[in-house]
Write a structure and sequence with these properties.
The chain has 186 residues and is of the alpha/beta class. The protein contains eight helices and six strands. The chain folds into two domains: 3-148, Rossmann fold, CATH 3.40.50; 153-185, no CATH class. Strand 5 (128-130) and strand 6 form a beta hairpin.
Length: 186
């Protein structure tokens, strides 16, 4: 095995481990078959089922959202945007990413081998760049609804009960205004 094949295999194994790190009920691979599906199939019997679709449209037609909700855990998807000479236009990419994010909100990993589209096209949908060792020319972006939009601190009831304490860096149980003296002890 050459050094390139070994690093590709290592990258594929790291990607599979990342996909399985959240304990998904199923793994859906959309796009080229690649080696990821083969790596997933060689895992132990307790690994989640792997479903493969050629396009996102095929995936939407075959998998019903209600059917997906009955699974014990959330599904994870790997969307592979291969550079096969046909580039998605920016508005087409936005539509595809929007559909994919709505379909797989728990975790969606997008793999792309070309330099186009720009990273900002993915960041606009709440994706973050994923870095694994030995990626070579593959760019990975991950969307996780639970990490995308955390509930803000100002929704905390403690803030509404006492807004002056909201940004206090001191002990939250002790509140003293700066420069004020305790007049009651005199």
């Amino acid at each position: 095995m050459s050094a390139i094949e070994g690093s590709t295999s290592n990258f594929q194994h790291q990607l599979v481990q990342h996909l399985l790190s959240s304990g998904p009920a199923s793994v859906t691979i959309i796009g080229g078959t690649g080696q990821v599906g083969q790596v997933l199939k060689t895992l132990s019997e307790d690994a989640p089922p792997v479903i493969h679709f050629e396009t996102l449209t095929d995936c939407h037609a075959a998998l019903d959202a209600a059917e997906e909700a009955t699974l014990e855990g959330a599904a994870v998807a790997l969307l592979q945007l291969d550079d096969n000479g046909t580039q998605l236009k920016e508005d087409e990419l936005a539509v595809e990413l929007g559909k994919a994010v709505r379909r797989f909100p728990a975790r969606l990993v997008v793999s792309i081998e070309s330099e186009e589209p720009a990273d900002t096209a993915f960041f606009a949908f709440g994706f973050r760049k994923l870095h694994l060792a030995d990626q070579r020319s593959v760019r990975l972006f991950e969307y996780c609804l639970s990490e995308y939009k955390q509930s803000p601190d100002w929704l905390n009831s403690q803030y509404w009960a006492n807004p002056a304490r909201f940004n206090a860096d001191e002990d939250p149980d002790i509140y003293v205004e700066d420069g004020s003296e305790d007049d009651e002890e005199d």
